[in-house]
Amino acid sequence: MTISLLYALVGVVLLGIGLYSLVIYSHLVKKILALNVAGSGVFLFLVATANQTSGPVPDPVPHAMVLTGIVVAVSATALALALACRIHQVTGTTRLTKNEPE
Amino acid sequence: MRRENGDGLDSQTVKMMATISVLALTSVLGWTVWTLPPFSDRMQRLVASNMAVSGVENPVTAVLLNFRGYDTLLEIGVLMLAALSVLSVVPSPAIFSQSPPSPILILLLRLLLPFIIIVGGYILWIGKYAPGGAFQAGAILAAGGILLSTAAVPFNRLASKAMPFAMAIGLLTFIVVALATMMVRGNFLQYPVAQAGILILVVEAAATISIAIILTLLFIGGNPEESSTAKDEGDKAFIIDKDKANK
Amino acid sequence: MDEFPNLADIVFDGILALVLLVLAWKLLRSPNLFKAVVLFISFGLMMSLAWVRLKAVDIALAEAAIGAGLTGALFLTALGKLQRDAQNNHENNGTDQQSKERRPNMASGSSD
Amino acid sequence: MSLSEILQPVTLPAWIVSLPLLAAVFSFVLPRIRVGAGIFTAIITPLMVVFLGREIFIHGAIQMQVGGWQSPLGIALYADGLSAAMLGITAVVIGSISFYARSYFSGVAASRYFWPLWMFLWASLNALFLSGDIFNLYVTLELLGLSAVALVALSPTADALSAAMRYLLVSLTGSLSYLMGVALLYAANGTLSIKLLAAAGLSSPSIATAFALMAAGLMMKSALFPMHFWLPPAHANAPAPVSAVLSALVVKASFYILIRLWLVIFEPFINPSAAQLMGALGAGAIIWGSVQALLAERLKLLVAYSTVAQVGYLFLVFPLSSIHQANQTAWQGGLYFVFSHACAKSAVFLAAGTVIYSFGHDRIKELHGIVRRMPVSMFAFALAGVSLIGLPPSGGFIAKWLYLNAALTGGQWWWCVLIIIGSLLATAYIFRFFSRAFSYSPEVVEERPVPWIMEWTALGLALCALILGFIAPAVTTLLDAGNPF
């Protein structure tokens, strides 16, 4: 088992932990944290595979993809937190209200 | 439908289902990763063989700003979009310490800010040769901006006209360069080889300014210029009867 | 090139991998949101270390600055704001019907 | 340099992405010209799309290597008949709604942010339909998702904010799932280009897992049953122009990616039962969405649930096209659904928005006799309803006709039964509203005067849905240009 494979598997497990928490916790801040952890998992997987080149230099393309991904993640987190604060202001709760009447 | 309702009685069932499905997903994914075919070197070799004409020496910067520059252009769009969205959602800033900042904080800022700006500039510049570049530099400058905002430095004056422009300059420069190179060489973002280095630096410098301002703004959360009355006016336009709609 | 990792490397990476998983699990399980965010920031810093191990120094820099630093700061301000709003509401109308939906301490928020 | 030199056909895709992006920048930086910038783009971009379509119609698909870097290294912009048709319907719908929005948002504070966000949404849709690279598609998906969420949140009610939050969480989860699929494909094949992935001769279990992840993420974003729970609140509570574009285009964007990937990369490698499964989910969506639409108490909620049902029809294309003889007909039918629903649904949402604009609510029970108050809007609603039900002559009719043909040719008669049931349910929920709208009411209700352009935009889009019923041969020829079928 190589080091890259180890980190790739850690990435997969982080994705799993993130998705699990996203579903079971209802506090919005918790959900947003969970999404960030899940995202880190995907990024870790990407970079870990990039490290498996036969030469000493890793593949730079996944690195660029992850840099892009990190910026997208922080953008999405900022919007999500702003929305969560606003929802709390308006409704007084930090959880999503129940669905529309069915 | 009930899955979002974490406080409900059925949280036990939700937990059970989530556990099972996530375990299944993780094991399938883990197995897939385990059985992946050997990683191909092709892309790494392609990047290496084109470094000479990329205008920079750090392969990651070459991919970000040249080979896959279009992704980065859209990504700076994502950042600006996020700033816009936060402004539209939170009309007033989160940080509004009315009390005057402590003299120690001011002193610290006086010492720290020039240092932060120099480090930011250095990281932007070094991105051409070594790890670094617009995003890292922008983030470091944003740290300075956040310090400033906690010290209640009157950003607001500066904010009025210059802020939107500073937020947009990165994306604007990138698009203009991309279109200009397209008119000269036929393809979107196709830098002339001799000028690639300088064009990339221009794009990155503009992007750094925007990234720094946007990240600071995401943190402050809200435009100091806009009062909360803006939102109240908005309410009138979308008259949706809340009681009935909410049911 | 990681065909023949030496023992020290294996131990270091093994521990780092374990730390990452434990931190992620702990931070998401923590009922105290403030603690969760602090753990999230340390998780980000550990991720930076992992990026360095994977020869991705660019990402390590970005992760430390943006992933851990800025995102962490965003979470902390959001928590502060939530708490302040809760207090304001409480002072204004302490006995409204919605107040039972709010936990006494806004920083606590897991479903169990 | 003359205009014809600048506007070389091969550069058109780049202009079609850049123009709305520039408009987004300028409408934010110079708020005074925001409406002008939006309207200008709403006029120029459709012209460019027409040029691009003409070029593809005559000379076949256009490919641009961004930065001049060939495909595994660089990103390809790829425009064939399918892209051109999607760009075209986007231009028609967003272009017309821009005029509606100009009145709808005039004098409203939210207008400050509406126009830049609106232009970002358009740019992201255009970039998405032109992309030939799976990671680039991820970036466009995020751009699209964030702008859509921010637009929903422009409506300041508690319901809209919660709906926006739910939408954001689902959208991010979907993108993450898609990105993991991209990561697997890259790890296994070392390329991100759709074309090269198709030629790579994929193997190993990674392809199936990658497909499952990408499909799950995209189906979430298209609100396919049972992952539709976020759609009705988001689409029902957003400002009307936003609801219209979300239902008409945004859910189709992820569907477009799915069919593109399915046709070019995955179809030969994936077990046919996957297609049947997607069809079964589509069937669930048709029944569930229609029944909920029948029970809805608010007009916009009715229309939103109708979208859930119509998304179900889109996914029937996978099982229907799996039989070789019916392949072509099924795909034409599926894409016809995309186009006719885009026109019809945006018309219906605009009409519903006009009702709210005028009366301040959209409770169906209290909308007695509104047909006399706003005949143009209700006429638009009726025409679009014809297409949603699938009565001739309309785009919706052609789509269902093609589907029925494909089902019969392929010997899958059970889908015919489903389509007929779905049409009956659609008739029921449309007429349930109309029985109110046409009923006599003596009471005088306070109302706000409606600018004529709002009513006529809805009618224009409804007419487009109708016209699609007459120009089927031209549309299918365009779809055939450089197409992957």
Task: Report on this structure.
The complex is a heterotetramer of chains A (102), B (247), C (112) and D (485). Helix content of chain A is 75%, strand content 0%. Chain A is mainly alpha-helical and 102 residues long. Chain A has a single domain (3-91), classed as Helix Hairpins, CATH 1.10.287. In chain A, helix 1 (3-24) packs antiparallel against helix 2 (28-50) and helix 2 runs antiparallel to helix 3. Chain A is elongated. By secondary structure, chain B is an all-alpha fold. Chain B has 2 domains: 2-34, no CATH class; 45-226, no CATH class. Helices cover 70% and strands 0% of the residues of chain B. The relative contact order of chain B is 0.13. The model of chain B is unreliable at 1-9 and 223-247 (pLDDT under 50). Chain C has a domain at 32-89. Chain D has a domain at 285-485. Helices cover 75% and strands 2% of the residues of chain D. Chains in contact: A-B, A-C, A-D, B-C, B-D. At the A-C interface, helix 1, helix 2 and helix 3 of A face helix 1, helix 2 and helix 3 of C.
Please outline what is shown here:
The complex is a heterotetramer of chains A (102), B (247), C (112) and D (485). Helices cover 75% and strands 0% of the residues of chain A.
Tag the structure with descriptive keywords.
heterotetramer, A: 102 residues, mainly alpha, Helix Hairpins, 0% strand, B: 247 residues, 2 domains, 10 helices, disordered N terminus, disordered C terminus
Secondary-structure map:
The complex is a heterotetramer of chains A (102), B (247), C (112) and D (485).
Chain A: H1 3-24, H2 28-50, H3 60-91
Chain B: H1 11-34, H2 42-50, H3 59-67, H4 69-89, H5 103-126, H6 134-150, H7 155-185, H8 196-220, H9 229-237, H10 242-246
Helix pairs in contact in B: 3-4, 4-7, 4-8, 5-6, 6-8, 7-8
Chain C: H1 7-29, H2 33-53, H3 57-92
Multimeric organization:
heterotetramer
Provide the gyration radius of chain C in Å: 19 Å
Helix content of chain A: over 70%
Strand fraction of chain A equals: under 5%
Distance between the termini of chain C: 45 Å
Class derived from helix and strand content of chain A: mainly alpha
Q: Counting H and I runs of at least 4 residues, what is the number of helices of chain A?
A: 3
Number of strands of chain A: 0
How would you classify the helix and strand content of chain C by structural class? mainly alpha
Run of helices and strands of chain A:
HHH
Termini gap of chain A: 52 Å
Q: Can you summarize the main beta sheet of chain C?
A: none
Element order of chain C: H for helix, E for strand: HHH
CATH class of chain A: Mainly Alpha
Stretches of chain C where pLDDT is under 50 for at least 5 consecutive residues are 93-112
In total, the number of domains of chain A comes to 1
Instruction: Let me know the number of strands of chain C.
Output: 0
Q: What form of chain C results from the Cα inertia axes? A: elongated
